[in-house]
């Protein structure tokens, strides 16, 4: 109930801010805007058309500007950065954590990036360069180099005194301390609860935990998110090829990955990018969407060509033209269900070449049962509608064949596309629709040509 009330209060504050902005009260709007959390300010900016967005951005205080930029989607962030000079960008970047700064720097022009790097002290610059050396969608790209490390031979009392001295500089979400060797290699973690509840004279080696596995810096962000979800981790250390600790990943970074993955899956079915601005310029949006519209047009012509092969059959039996969409639609829905399941399996790391046979067998069995059920239903409707048992049997057979083809394609296609380096979420739906249309029309009209003419 408390969380629901907080969410409602947040929505009310943002709605009220929109009303104040529309009234033209700049001072009041500025005070209200900067009282919001950076994520809420980003939400406001993304819900405004570009002209109003630029006005509101100028109201944001420099102290929170950097954090607000991090919460914006890619398109809106790029738009705002284009309108900022180097001095403003440097002011916004000041005070950001190294991992957050790495995310921001990747969107900056090379000249501004160089200025940001030169403005940092040597330690932060080295950590930032390390973070930037890894792909954005890897554990190295996600990690925060800021961490607290301890040696196994020191006592808990020494650790406690060390933490008290740097209490104002502890990284956020510190639930444990990373135990390393003299060479900087990962050994284990010391949970804060163990630190506080054990004898201060005990050594770190005596109470540290070996249960938390380190994450290779080149691991995929998707795999990192799966590990955090499965093991309920708050943080985890990141190591290089030699086992040296480079930094740590925290749950807030993983939540961003999960959200982006969900957005990608949802928008990918429509050929859209998860970072696309809802109020992006018309030409930019049109150009992005034109690609998938063009691909869809080619596949539609392929299906039309198949229909054209049976033009004479359709002319003689008009009922076929009426029933054709039913066959294609049933296959499309059945295939989409399997396709979505397979894409999710790949995203969660649950589907691979080792178990694909089981998925195919299961989905084909489901397709047989559903195909028989709905083929009988459609056949009965077709018989009552057109009074032809031949057409009823033909459409029943076509639906069964198409549903089976759809299930097979939906199960195998995502894995094949993933192996080829093609995003299944973007391309899978288009290819599946083509297969179900072609197979549906070919089986229905082909059977009709053989048995009705």
From TrEMBL:
Keyword annotations: CBS domain, Cell membrane, Magnesium, Membrane, Metal-binding, Transmembrane, Transmembrane helix, Transport
Q: Does the keyword NADP apply?
A: no
Gene Ontology CC entries for this record: plasma membrane
Query: What single Pfam family name could you report for this chain, choosing any that match?
Result: MgtE
Q: Which InterPro entries match?
A: CBS_dom (IPR000644), CBS_dom_sf (IPR046342), Mg_transptr_MgtE_intracell_dom (IPR006668), MgtE_N_sf (IPR038076), MgtE_transporter (IPR006669), SLC41_membr_dom (IPR006667), SLC41_membr_dom_sf (IPR036739)
Q: Where in the cell is it found?
A: Cell membrane; Membrane
Describe, as the record does, how this protein assembles with itself and its partners.
Homodimer.
Query: Under what name is this protein listed?
Result: Magnesium transporter MgtE
Q: Give the species.
A: Halochromatium salexigens
């Amino acid at each position: 109930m408390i969380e629901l009330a907080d969410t409602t209060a947040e929505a009310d504050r943002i709605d009220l801010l929109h009303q104040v902005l529309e009234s033209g009260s700049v001072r009041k709007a500025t005070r209200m805007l900067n009282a919001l959390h950076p994520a809420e300010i980003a939400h406001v900016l993304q819900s405004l058309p570009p002209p109003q967005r630029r006005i509101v951005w100028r109201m944001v205080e420099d102290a929170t500007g950097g954090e607000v930029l991090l919460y914006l989607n890619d398109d809106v962030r790029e738009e705002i950065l284009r309108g900022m000079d180097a001095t403003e960008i440097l002011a916004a970047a000041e005070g950001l954590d190294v991992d957050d700064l790495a995310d921001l720097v990747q969107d900056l022009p090379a000249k501004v990036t160089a200025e940001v790097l030169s403005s940092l002290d040597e330690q932060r610059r080295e950590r930032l360069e390390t973070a930037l050396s890894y792909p954005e969608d890897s554990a190295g790209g996600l990690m925060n180099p800021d961490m607290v490390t301890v040696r196994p031979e020191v006592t808990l009392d020494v650790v406690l005194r060390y933490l008290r001295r740097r209490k104002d500089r502890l990284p956020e979400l510190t639930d444990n301390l990373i135990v390393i060797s003299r060479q900087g290699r990962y050994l284990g973690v010391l949970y804060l609860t163990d630190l506080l509840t054990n004898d201060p004279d005990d050594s770190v080696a005596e109470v540290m935990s070996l249960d938390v596995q380190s994450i290779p810096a080149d691991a995929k962000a998707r795999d990192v998110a799966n590990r955090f979800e499965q093991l309920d981790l708050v943080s985890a250390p990141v190591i290089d090829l030699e086992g040296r600790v480079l930094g740590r990943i925290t749950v807030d970074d993983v939540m961003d990955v999960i959200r982006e993955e969900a957005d990608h899956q949802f928008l990918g079915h429509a050929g859209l990018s998860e970072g696309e601005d809802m109020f992006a310029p018309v030409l930019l949006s049109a150009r992005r969407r034109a690609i998938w519209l063009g691909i869809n047009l080619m596949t539609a012509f392929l299906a039309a060509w198949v229909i054209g092969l049976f033009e004479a059959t359709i002319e003689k039996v008009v009922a076929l033209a009426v029933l054709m969409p039913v066959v294609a639609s049933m296959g499309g829905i059945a295939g989409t269900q399997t396709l979505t399941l397979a894409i999710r399996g790949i995203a969660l790391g649950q589907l691979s070449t080792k178990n694909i046979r089981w998925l195919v067998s299961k989905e084909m069995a489901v397709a047989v049962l559903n195909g028989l059920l709905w083929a009988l239903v459609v056949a009965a409707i077709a018989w009552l509608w057109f009074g032809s048992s031949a057409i009823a049997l033909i459409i029943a057979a076509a639906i069964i064949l198409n549903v089976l083809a759809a299930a097979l394609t939906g199960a195998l296609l995502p894995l094949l596309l993933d192996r080829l380096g093609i995003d299944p979420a973007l391309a899978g739906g288009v290819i599946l629709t083509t297969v179900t249309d072609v197979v549906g029309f070919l089986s229905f009209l082909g059977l009709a040509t053989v048995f009705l003419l």
